[in-house]
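Hi there. Long-time user, first ticket. I'm pasting a complex I've been working with (about 601 residues overall). I'd like to know whether the download I got is complete or cut off, because the file seemed smaller than I expected. Thanks.
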Amino acid sequence: MSAPELWMSLELGLIYGLVSMGIYLSFRILNFSDLTCDGSFVLGAAVSAVLIKAGYSPWTSLGASAIVGGGAGFITGILHTRFRVSDLLSGILVAFMLYSINLRIMGGSPNINLMEMHVISTHFLWVIVLGIGFFFAYLLKTDWGLALRSLGKNKRLGLNNGIRVPLMIVAGLALSNALIAMGGSLMGQYQGFVDIGSGVGSVIIGLASIMIGECFVPTRSVVWALFSAIIGSILYRIIISLALHSDIFGLQTQDLNLITGLLILTIMISSRRTSCYR
Amino acid sequence: MSTTVSTVSTLCAMLCAISLPISASPKKTIFISQVVAHPALDSTVKGIEDGIRSNGFKNAEIKIESAQGNGALASQIAAKFLYSQPDVLVGAGTLSAQSLTLQSKNRIPVVFSSVTDPVGAGLVKNLKSPGQAVSGVSNFVDLEPQLKLFKTLQPNLKRLGFLYSPGEQNSVSILEKLEVVAEKMGMVIVKQSAMKTADVSQAAMKLAGQVDAIFISQDGPALSAFRTIVQAANARQIPVYVSDTDCVEQGALAALGPNQYQVGLQTGAMVARVLQGEDICAQEVEFPKTTELFVNEDAAKICGIILPRETLAKAKRIVKSSK
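Hi, the file is complete. Here it is re-exported in full:
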């Protein structure tokens, strides 16, 4: 693997780090299996692409994507808390419906190109992603964050302590999807185009990243866990880069998913054996 | 001792210097990034490979990777390809072509294939002079001759159904142009979307009840599930038209266009020209050169359509069962 490839893995890993942080928030902290991700990722990308095309600054578009992404999470949350749709189903339904909405936002065209548009420079990626990471780390350390974290552990306990559980779930999901949508926005700007199909599998990517991160940074601290999601996401991209080079062993491009999966499993199993954790 | 070594090394160097020009020209490397694997695009890629080999680069090293429809993966493939410094990069499909173009930044020539709207996709500034080290072959087939053909086969054709996937840029840009052309010819386009292969049969069934004929133009999901469209149309005794001649054998009534393999061959020829040293910036974007007419007599019988003699005479191939 070459230096440019490694560098790209870092950058892609940072961008998808936002996604894995979002998924960490819903799956791990809230203990809510939220599958809105596949839709909200593209939603963020679509909104920011349209805004950039309309002449808005890429930073404005990043902010706007966070807001609409938060809206998507809000709807999933309302479906679950208010209308008692199960967590999996409400996420799936919202992601499913978002496909059509995203196409509407993109004006019916499934691919918008941003080449030669003014986009956020890749130098800022570190600042943006780490900045957001620190902000969320701080948020989770506050009393409000503590209340949020308690829900995933024990809802009844939270309820008995006067936490407004439904409201907190909705807020948590909104934050999670805002993060994911920002990931989508940055990804679109990074690649120079937004495609309606780009969200497929982002839940799996995010979950795999979290688990890789947990293996490498065994920790009980929530702040470290949040950052381990970013580290895991970077490692995931490096693994894919490595898997892309498996052709020297006579493997073909259609074997990529198998190789990636096996590499991830190897890392997870071997690190669990050697680390002191458990 | 040292003199012997130096003599030997000088001799070796001389031998090398002599043998280099005699041996075949250095092996060219061509890397192809294909956006996703489906039958139509696979045959394009096969065509690109054969096109390069048959145009004087028999021993070229050709590597193919599929991005599995995933943008991030397409970028990573592009980074991997660029590091190896191939002679030409080929992007089959809009998404792959876009990521190669963006990553290569004019360092290595990029030839695209199977991109319906290269200007809209941001690959080239205009079709005549690409303006950067990017050019290629679009798979857009002129719509007017096709619609005229449908009219000759079905003079009463008023409502033409168009089954497409709203997630495919290629299909959406064809639809935009189709609606304009059809209006001029007094036809109404009834559009029906099918996002995945699994949705196609239901969509075709619904569409078949509303239209006089169904038209499929190079849409991945629709072509992958082409059989189910033919079944739905046959049940209503309406014909299916396509732009890809390969599909006529599978039950379409007629096609006026290239097949995806020929689009690939044409791309391969352009790659070969670039390898021979032609400047890529001077290459105009090409459209399919050879359009052929294929008709299917069995399908005509099912729909109760009598094929005019002139049409049969023009047909390059007439498909009929041996019964």
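A couple of notes from our side: The first helix of chain B runs from residue 2 to 22. Chain B touches chain A at residues 37, 63-66, 68-77, 79-80, 82-83, 94-95, 98-99, 101-102, 120-122, 166-169, 172-173, 195 (CB under 8 Å).
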